[in-house]
């Protein structure tokens, strides 16, 4: 069975992890710092803060930016739950803006028309690895004093062209904070893991504290414990001035991340090669719409986490679930990504959202089918996927 996504682990990865087990540190040690430094250098960001998963990175972004009850956070409905849930975690109101029919990312035009006075942040999701239109989104947000958080969990290693030059995802001026995921199906993996990157010194300092229970060991920030008898401040001393969380990641996970990061270019290139093969085979099929890009110049810069077709199931006279079952019999596993988040029971019952709120995203969902896409796929695997889809739809 060819899965829709899978990690790519080699002997060097295993050796890197094994070396940590023989070291003095299993967590909060030198491998964490090394991974953060290497990742920041790779994307071109001033600060990188590693955490235990991508959801925690988004949650930490909310806490870092002081998003709270009474604030509204706008995001795309075409995403995993965490992109919206992170706002609910801090008591804010998650809300949804429809997607662009070409890129499947949050539409700047819809964002501008649906802006509300209590909006304090926009979470721009890079669906499938294609970057959202962060320059346009940032311009709108800045006009209203809101911040932009780029959910780049799909876009590790991605780039885009703006103003005549290439920009790294996580290393451009149109997002205040960018978050990444290192889940096994993502471009690189730490097993579970995530990263928050920013150029804002204040955000970075706050994120590092909130990642570890809100603890500060910096003497310049100390307030005191309220009594002179408790004022001795030796090597053990720390203060928790606000409550935080335990979002820490281990050294052996970061050792894996460092090893994987060294192969990021080859991982991304293999994904692009597979996408080219898929596009070549499916582009002329009358029942299939291949993924399109906001800017065609970004095609060879996109990291391609997902390959999602739009299939006219009605004209094909087949239900999506039946097609998926038939493909599975041919050894090809597929996935549907994503159910529009605003239609989830929690969001319908809590916020009153429902069908018709984001019609483009809703229509996208009804036709979406994601095919296998991961670097370890052999050419024969790619051909098996292509032939299986064509045979079932012809």
CATH class category label of the largest domain = Alpha Beta
Label the CATH architecture of the largest domain.
3-Layer(aba) Sandwich
Question: Any idea of the CATH topology of the largest domain?
Answer: Aspartate Aminotransferase, domain 2
CATH superfamily of the largest domain: Type I PLP-dependent aspartate aminotransferase-like (Major domain)
Spatial sequence of strands, sheet with the most strands: 1-9-8-5-4-2-3
- Roughly what is the average pLDDT, rounded to an integer? 97
Name the structural class: alpha/beta
Task: Assess the beta-strand content as a share of residues.
Answer: 5-15%
Distance between the termini: 22 Å
Oligomer: single chain
Spell out the key features of this protein.
alpha/beta; 2 domains; three-stranded antiparallel β-sheet; seven-stranded mixed β-sheet; about 400 residues; Aspartate Aminotransferase, domain 2; Aspartate Aminotransferase, domain 1
What does it look like?
This protein is an alpha/beta fold. The chain has 2 domains: 11-261, 3-Layer(aba) Sandwich (Aspartate Aminotransferase, domain 2), CATH 3.40.640.10; 264-393, Aspartate Aminotransferase, domain 1 (Alpha-Beta Complex). Helix content is 37%, strand content 15%. The protein is built from 14 helices and 14 strands. The protein has helices spanning 11-21, 30-43, 54-64, 82-89, 108-113, 134-143, 201-211, 251-261, 264-282, 313-316, 320-329, 345-351, 359-367, 379-393, and strands spanning 47-51, 72-75, 93-96, 119-125, 147-151, 159-162, 165-168, 177-181, 194-198, 215-216, 239-240, 288-289, 307-311, 368-371. The strands form 4 sheets. The protein has a 7-stranded mixed beta sheet, sandwiched between helices. A hairpin with a 2-residue loop joins strand 6 (159-162) and strand 7 (165-168). Helix 1 packs antiparallel against helix 8. The longest helix is centred in the C-terminal third of the chain and has 19 residues, at 264-282. It starts with 10 loop residues before the first helix and ends with a helix. The mean pLDDT is 97.
């Amino acid at each position: 069975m060819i899965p829709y996504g899978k990690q790519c682990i080699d002997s060097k990865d295993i050796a890197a992890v094994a070396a940590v087990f023989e070291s003095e540190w299993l967590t909060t040690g030198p491998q964490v710092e090394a991974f953060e430094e290497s990742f920041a250098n790779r994307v071109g960001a001033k600060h990188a803060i590693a955490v235990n998963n991508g959801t925690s990175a988004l949650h930490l972004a909310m806490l870092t930016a002081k998003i709270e009850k009474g604030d509204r956070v706008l995001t795309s409905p075409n995403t995993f739950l965490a992109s919206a849930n992170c706002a609910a975690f801090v008591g804010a109101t998650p809300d949804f803006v429809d997607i662009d029919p070409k890129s499947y990312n949050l539409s700047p035009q819809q964002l501008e028309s649906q802006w509300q006075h209590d909006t304090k942040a926009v979470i721009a999701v890079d669906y499938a690895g294609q970057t959202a239109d962060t320059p346009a989104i940032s311009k709108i947000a800045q006009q209203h004093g809101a911040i932009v958080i780029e959910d780049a969990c799909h876009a590790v290693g991605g780039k885009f062209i703006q103003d005549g030059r290439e920009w790294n995802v996580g290393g451009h001026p149109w997002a205040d904070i960018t978050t990444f995921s290192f889940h096994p199906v993502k471009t690189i993996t730490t097993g579970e893991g995530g990263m928050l990157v920013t150029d804002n010194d204040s955000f970075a300092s706050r994120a590092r504290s909130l990642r570890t229970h809100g603890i500060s060991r910096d003497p310049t920030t100390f307030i005191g414990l309220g009594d002179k008898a408790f004022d001795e401040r030796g090597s053990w001393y720390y203060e928790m001035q606000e409550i935080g969380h335990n979002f820490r990641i281990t050294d052996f996970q970061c050792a894996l991340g460092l090893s994987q990061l060294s192969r990021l270019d080859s991982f991304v290139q293999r994904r692009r090669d597979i996408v080219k093969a898929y596009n070549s085979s499916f582009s002329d099929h009358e029942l299939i719409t291949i993924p399109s890009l906001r800017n065609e110049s970004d095609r060879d810069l996109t990291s391609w986490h997902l390959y999602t077709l739009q299939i006219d199931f009605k004209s094909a006279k087949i239900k999506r679930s039946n097609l998926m079952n038939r493909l599975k019999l041919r050894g090809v596993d597929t996935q549907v990504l994503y159910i529009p988040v605003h239609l989830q029971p929690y969001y319908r019952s809590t916020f009153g959202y429902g069908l018709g709120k984001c019609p483009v995203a809703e229509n996208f969902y009804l036709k979406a089918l994601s095919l296998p896409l991961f670097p370890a796929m052999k050419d024969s695997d790619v051909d098996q996927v292509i032939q299986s889809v064509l045979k079932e739809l012809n």
